[in-house]
Amino acid sequence: MPKRKSKPRFTAKNSDRHDLYQRSVQAPEFEVEFFDKTFKKLRKRRPYSMREDFCGTALLCGHWVDSHKKRTALGVDIDPDVLQWGVENNLKPFGEPGNRVTLAQRDVRQVTREKFDLVNAMNFSYWIFQERAEMVRYFKAVRKSLVKDGIFFLDMYGGWESQEVMEEARKIEGGFTYVWDQHSFDPMNNVAVNYIHFRFRDGSEMKRAFKYVWRQWSMVEIRELLTEAGFKKLHIYWDVVDGSFRERKKMDNQPGWLAYIAALV
Fold this sequence. Notes:
By secondary structure, this protein is of the alpha/beta class. The chain has helices at 17-24, 28-43, 59-66, 80-94, 132-144, 219-228, and strands at residues 49-53, 72-77, 101-105, 116-121, 146-158, 166-172, 176-186, 191-200, 205-215, 233-241, 244-247, 257-264.
């Protein structure tokens, strides 16, 4: 007898957009390892306290505290619903380590009383600040929230294809497709409108599950603004091949590139 076709694991009807995003975009284990190794190399000690800005579902916070029994994290985001989702779906499943994460619904431009070994802003989230004064204010708040030998980690992407109107689809384990939609780009102000869609094997689709309106900052602009905000030294780590990041001081332009910045107080 012919085999019965298995039901697709994910459909637009039964899926949660935050879960799909985490499966498609986030790599918390890699980032925790990168932060740890880079911090130890640059500061000759191990980091224990972390603030995750624009933390969303706080998945990275959970993996951070789970990586060492002494580690603590503060996740900051302005959306109360996504923070609560993170508590129920990410932090509680971690058990005891999840209790070492504190979530705060507030503006990331507020200086925290507590000082942290490291602060991070991943997935280009800080590009929501489109004016120079806004970005410098944010960077200054980060610097004031770090210990005297702290590090601010942030990521960037670029290349000439990053400004093209296009869609990029990638199949994700479990039976769905992640679609990055570079919907529009205005060269007058470098503001890009991007969407994330999800498509499923049963033909259903979750359109515009996420929307981003960002200024696409260049590497030289961000380096200048970090320096203006008071960071003393910057290290740039470039995705050289297959997700391997190496420190670089000069690079040829590429159709698309990804990099991390470590900004030292």
